[in-house]
Amino acid sequence: MNKFLLPLAAFIALLAVFAVGLTLNPRALPSPLVDKAAPAFNAPLLHDPDQRFSPSEMAGKVWLLNVWASWCVACREEHPVLVAYSRTDAAVPIIGLNYKDKRDDGLLWLARFGNPYQLSAFDGDGRIGIDYGVYGVPETYLIDKTGRIRFKQNGPVTAEVLEKTLLPLIRSLNP
Questions:
Q1: Most buried by CB count within 10 Å: which residue of 7, 45, 69, 158?
Q2: Distance between CA atoms of 172 and 175, rounded to whole angstroms?
Q3: 104-122 pLDDT, tens digit each
Q4: Hey, where are the domains in the chain?
């Protein structure tokens, strides 16, 4: 009888693990960077490779870092939301990070669909994206006044994500 109790207990434990797993959101990819300092970088600007951007320039400001690319289909879904938000009085600066793209393609994309960004840094080889743990584009990071990542959105920023998640967080960080 005892030789059946151990396999039964293991089976029940495995069932419990699977049951908990079924309650999790499969689209949620936790980031180890949330509540940690945003990785530093110094990248050329998309519009002018002779100028550079570093996150340290945003010290004292709440801002969004939006990782995007011209080849990204989901970026087209979120782009109108970002453009509309950037035109509001409540908007915090949005810095773009053009990821693994061709410079001319990124410039053409912004000219065609609008530019919600205060500026876009250019990450042609994806090294900055690696430091940020980019799984795929689009991804958006909410960074506080001290340079700490407070939230990471995997996938497009939708109107719902903006209204229910980002804006309340921005208001709490930027009273």
A1: 69
A2: 6
A3: 999 999 999 999 999 999 9
A4: 32-173
